[in-house]
Amino acid sequence: VSLTQKLAEKLTILNERGNGVLIRMNYIKKTCGDPKLRPSFLTDKAMESAIKYINKRFPNIDYRGNIVSQNLTSIQRQKSEVLSNTTSYYESFLDVIEFRDHVYELLNTIDACQCFFDITTNFDFTKNYLDLIITYTSVIITLSRIDDKKALVGMFNCAHEMTNGSSDPSYPRLGQMFLEYDHPWKKLTEEFGPHTKAVTTALLSLKMVYPRRNLPAEQWRSAQLLSLLSAPAAMLDSACCDTMACEYLSMETMERWIIIGFLLCHSSLNSNQASQELWKMGLRSGIYLTLTRDEVLNIHKVSEDLFDNIKGYNKRIADIKECREHVLVNGGAMHRERRHFLRGALKELCKVLEDEPGLLGPKALFVFMALSFSRDEILWLVRHSENMPKLKVPEDYIDNQLAELLYYMEKLRGLMRKYNNVVQRYHVQYLAQFDALVLNDTIQNMYVCPEEESVLMSSFVSTLSGLSVKQVDNKEEFDFRALRLDWLRLQAYTSVNKAPLPLKDYPDLAKVMNLTQFHTKMVDAVEEMLYETSELSIFCFYPRVFEKMFTQSSEEVTMKRYLMAFPLACAHFSQSGDPLCPEEVSVHLRLCVTFLEQIAKQTSTVVLEICAEQRNLCDQLLPKHCAETISAARYRKQKKQMPKKGEVQKEKPGAESLRKDRTVANNMDKLHLMLTELCSCYSLCGDFVVFDHIVVPTEFLISQLETRLSEIIVRMTNYNQTTQEITRPSDLLAGIRAYVANLHSLSCYINVDVTRLVKSVLLQQTQPLDSHGGQTITTLYTNWFLESLLRQASNSLIVHCPTLHCFMSQVTDTEPSFRAEEFSDISELQALAELIGAYGLKFLSENLMWHITSQVTELKKMVVENMDVLVQMKNNFDKPEEMVNLKKRLTGGENVLKRMTIIGVILSFRAMVQECLKDVTLSIYELASAAGLPCDIDPSLVAAIRSMQTDNTSPDEEHKLSRLLLVYIAVSLPLLALDPNSFYNREHGGHNNNIHCLARAINQLAAAMFTIQNKNIEQQLKEFLLLASSTLLQLGQNVERMEIKNRESIYLLLHMVGIVEESPFLSQDMLESCFPYVLLRNAYREVYKSFIVTLG
């Protein structure tokens, strides 16, 4: 009979199908129950009356009456949309009916065959049978919890009848099923009444397995469970027993079988003492059982509610209450102690197997037992944490050390994958050289062996005998699924009543085949075994609990090294899907990314705190802090009175390293310890896969460090626009170097590319904005130099000093907000060039050019206003009388010189910065100018002035304006003699009002303008030199105010040399031809006369 019924095949297929239907029902329940996911047609106001009517009349709904038509008008209007939207739900409910029919048929067949069930003998057959009962029950319970099922089915049938003129053929059965399962447990117990004997027999076979597994941690500890070191002499012996599969069978699965099984077949609880004891032990295990995903069953409440309505169950209700009280008092503590024991046991197991991976062969069973035990405890904690009962000791349901248990589970999984070859070699030899021989002997000793069973067992022996180690060495793929399915078939054939070969009479055959099955799984199904014993996709459906557990673990310093186990557990989520419910929404990468970002944030915070401490120490060694030390040394040398004893002496750098007691940990010790712990967690794996995404944990750390380091560098700049404060470039550079040096020490802890990180951050700082759109030091220093230093230089509050190659603040009555020389000398500008690089200086140059073009625009306007006068002065520069009259008509001469001076100051600052860039890096040749190399014609200035041109102005007009601008400047030069600040300062090498910058402004501006106009620069500058010389010589002929004007004009004459020296287009011979050298010599003598030092 069993051969034709195909019990094994049906059990396998129905279990798989039932699991998909269960997940589908759970998805529908979640979708309809969540306001965000709820189908729109259920929330539509227009549908409210129709839904109420359907729920009230279900399943006998009249679709044709007058009163009905008023209620169902909304469905009539949208019948096609309603039909399409409800079809998938309707078909899913039909799947439940189909599944139920097949389950009924199979259970009745099994009863008719009077099958024998014993978990220790026909393990797979018994497990599949119990799983099918539990899956079916879970489907019905979940279905009963869908509040909108009647509305969904009723709306579909209504739309179907309105569209097709008749109801769907399956509707009456579906409606009847919904009514029957309004009280699901009552109906289910009625259904399973006839199956009580078979179910009870299967459950009672657990009495040798479940109590042995359900022990407190003290007994585990005294038995040295999972320890490889407890019996050193037997360390190489193969770990095996008569009930291999039972050893790693999930406790949660067994408890689900016991609780739900005895609820369905409760009559045995009053008639069988063994049943009652097993049931009570299951009731004491916890308060909640998982049906599927996060759908749970409150076992005590459901049991009590069911037995309340049945006569003669008062004692059982009392047992339920007593068991519930026991769980509330002792359950949390018992499971807490188990987790505590498993943390130590798994740690020891990992250490031993890491050191001796060859033990994975004989001791593979230990690994799967450890994983299964740990998984059971984690699942128990998760479902009870989410639905935590009101307790006096809620701490028992909080585990801030769960990270360690998860970590060692992942380590064991990793070891099994890494040394899969070792496991395969061992078990291939075991199968061929032991299992095949024992199985053959067992078969030979049988006194009866029917043909079908004989064929199967002979195939087992031949398959196993043909194995060899060479297959492993050649990396051949093994597939024993057919053998294992044949063993399940054989269990079914030999477990029916009056079987020719009853399996219960041949326990040795069951033992050797169960052992062989385990060994075959070690060869070809290690991944399946890891999934069966350690899959943690439950966290996918308890995201709040999972995040809470991560937070609790991350607050413990000792747990930080294990935190990577949390994101790694997210890799299990992809295993939770089912083909029957592909649209089921999961959290995907969100949780994984959240955990990795949190770990990266903690690590980067510690790293950067260490860097900040080191930066403070390096800061103490900067030259600016040595004044106090020099002063103290001077006191001692001059024997002056030292400061009073009450004053605290400042510690010298390095004092923090002196230790009196090494056990006393300072802040740096704690930070380094924290960093070691956090970096250890990155060693768990280099990368892993979550939903087809390859996740690299160290990249999250690099990303966090990049963001935080950019923020820190900008903060270190200390730019305050209001007070005009900013850190000196050299100090900032020293700070960044301290950070970078310490960041490189991170590679001693963890394999990260610090060089790439630093280059990325510093390169971003050379741009106006970083990758997140934030300001960079390039922008801050550009703003500061423009708004603070150069603005004050334009107002002569700061002087350009060619001699000292810097800008200096003028002495004024008010205290300046900063000293210009501290920010603009060669060392500071070199530091600036190193900080912001060629790209940053290019941005600075562009901003400088914008200010220059603004001044040139105003100069052109002034030239246009005075064009007639300037044209006449250009033509009559050799006629002094006419020039005097024309000068009186010329307006704005001082303004022209002021604007040209501003241009000169800007160009002088730019030249200083460009020169420093050349000193810093000569290897950058994007453009000669960008690399800091001097050019006769400034390309940036040419580009800036070219951008000013408009289509309205002709080239000839532009050329005319340019020539007249030089005329304007030349004839205005004598006006500078009236300014007292035009006095030449020999020490600075320039004038106090920065007019010495005119030389650079005239040369570079003229060269740029005439380059754009494609004119001869040398010829135009010769004309300017001739006109300027003439006006200055005429100034010398004015005798009325000779004491003032002549002296100041000589200072200016000196700068005529500056104009010639600055220009690559003019020469001393040209100057000599239009300006007597004797006047230049006298000017030099007058200027330096007050500085002559006589040497005796």
What share of residues is helical? 55-70%
Structural class by sheet pairing and helices: mainly alpha
The overall average pLDDT, rounded, is: 87
Inertia-based shape: elongated
GO cellular component, one term: SCAR complex
GO biological process, one term: cortical actin cytoskeleton organization
Pfam families: Nckap1
Biased composition (Basic and acidic residues): 644-657
Word description of this protein:
It is a single chain. With 1096 residues, the chain is mainly α. The termini are far apart. Mean pLDDT is 87; it is low at 921-926, 1042-1054 and 1092-1096. One of its GO terms (cellular component) is SCAR complex.
Summarize the structure.
This protein has 1096 residues and is mainly α. Helix 27 crosses helix 28. Helices cover 65% and strands 2% of the residues.
List the SSEs and their pairings:
Layout: H1 2-5, H2 7-33, H3 40-43, H4 48-57, H5 66-71, H6 73-77, H7 79-113, H8 123-144, H9 149-164, H10 171-180, H11 184-191, H12 196-204, H13 210-213, H14 217-222, H15 244-247, H16 251-264, H17 267-271, H18 273-283, E1 288-292, E2 295-298, H19 299-308, H20 314-355, H21 364-386, H22 402-418, H23 420-444, H24 451-465, H25 469-473, H26 481-493, H27 507-524, H28 526-534, H29 543-554, H30 565-569, H31 590-620, H32 627-638, H33 667-681, E3 688-690, E4 693-695, H34 697-717, H35 729-744, H36 754-764, H37 777-794, E5 798-801, E6 806-809, H38 821-824, H39 826-865, H40 867-875, H41 880-889, H42 893-920, H43 939-948, H44 955-972, E7 984-985, E8 990-991, H45 998-1012, H46 1017-1036, H47 1042-1062, H48 1068-1074, H49 1077-1088
Antiparallel strand pairs: 1-2, 3-4, 5-6, 7-8
